[in-house]
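Try it yourself: sequence plus NDP, in.
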Amino acid sequence: MNIQNYINGKFMPPIANGWLDNYNPANGEVYGQIPNSSKEDVENAYIAAKSAFPTWSQTTLEERSRVLIKISELLEENLQQFAEAESLDNGKPVWLAKAIDIPRAASNFRFFGNAITQFASESHESIGHDAINYTLRQPIGVVGCISPWNLPLYLFTWKIAPALAAGNSVIAKPSEVTPMTAFLLSEICLEAGLPKGVLNIVHGLGTTTGQAIVEHPDIKAISFTGGTATGAHIAKVAAPMFKKLSLELGGKNPNIIFADSDYEDMLETTVRSSFANQGQICLCGSRIFVEVSIYEKFKTDFVKKVKTLRVGHPSEEKTKIGALASKSHLEKVLSYVDIAEQEGGKILCGGKRIGVLGYENGYYMEPTVIEVPSDECRVNQEEIFGPVVTIMPFNNEDEVLQMANKVKYGLSATLWTNDLKRTMRMSNQLQAGIIWVNTWMMRDLRTPFGGIKASGVGREGGFEALRFFTEAKNVCIKY
Ligand code: NDP
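Structure, out:
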């Protein structure tokens, strides 16, 4: 199936650069083509977005809200089609896309459609000076949204929805690895009555299409989710133009397990937080630290459970682990198994590419648990972003805190304990933007979402996202 750019409310082929192949990770075959968009395509999108901005930014909040909620409803109505498309593009199980990815994309539009009606500007009375200040929150103009392949529509809409709600017009680029649901979204936007030019979706490579968005002098804000190295590059390009930047980057998140936790709940959730979406979630707890008194028991029970996870074709209901998103990514993940062995790590289970009957060229890999000799080894420090976790024991709170914080990343951390004082102490000291205690990936869309250190700059979610997509302007009136 071939897809097209969505510019000024129309479907358009690329102007200059031709097309790119789109692969099905479940069988390794090309199943369609996507535009390899150039600077010219981005410029066309910019012209459309610029001319749509004055009207959209002046559209009432009720109307903006109505359109966004309509998009949300249409996504829900087309759940099956979207879930199958997401799975075909990304390799994730259809049931997972149906349970998580697509419903969340619909929630993103509904949430920000509602949130914008509650978003308020602040006012400050300057007592003693006979003056009042009020702060306007004005849309920025044309903004750029760039998203990765792991949760394609989920993360794409997490940016687009608040940007549109706040009154901006948008140029968005999904990952070239997983463009399909973004294309289907453009069809839905037309049906929902989103005015032409308000949202423009341009497909292509990061290094050309993405780069053209980031370099464009009149695209005033960039919201990016992806790898840390790409984020650093984008920051370098955008900073001299003083663009607003929101960067959601990589993670290497600790999952810290104390002996006093609720064991069965912890074990089950830890399997999920390790391998959900083939381990390709920036929030996965990829470094497992276990209190020494339960380490051997945990190791045995965990490995036993992991071995039962069924790797299979994404369309099968019984499949727990589908295909990885691309061949190059599979190769990168596998290379870390070799690195682990060279570093003295012990592969407790998995570690290999596997063939699924009938789909031998698909990008499948066994879920892998590596016991590491030290928290400083590369597999414990570098983001692998696949079905691979490390485990090691710890002796006490201070030691595990030090190990947990001794990475360049700071996205999320999970803590398993029933000790309230320890929970408070550790939550205060863990270096991460998000802490989960006795749970994992429980999301409330009102909360600030994002990381510290090399995991990013800025926060998404709730009013934080609406603040990012608006400029604050203070007006001071003396009376
Ligand atoms: P990349 O950084 O490779 O790509 C992310 C997006 O940026 C893609 O659309 C990509 O296009 C585009 N891109 C690449 N180069 C440029 C450039 N020079 N200028 C502009 N855009 C560019 O990340 P991945 O797609 O590999 O995603 C995986 C990463 O995302 C992991 O590190 C993961 O941790 C992180 N992530 C972070 C999350 C968070 O919230 N903190 C959530 C989810 C993932 P293309 O793919 O077409 O090359």
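One thing you can check immediately is this: The two ends are 64 Å apart (CA to CA).
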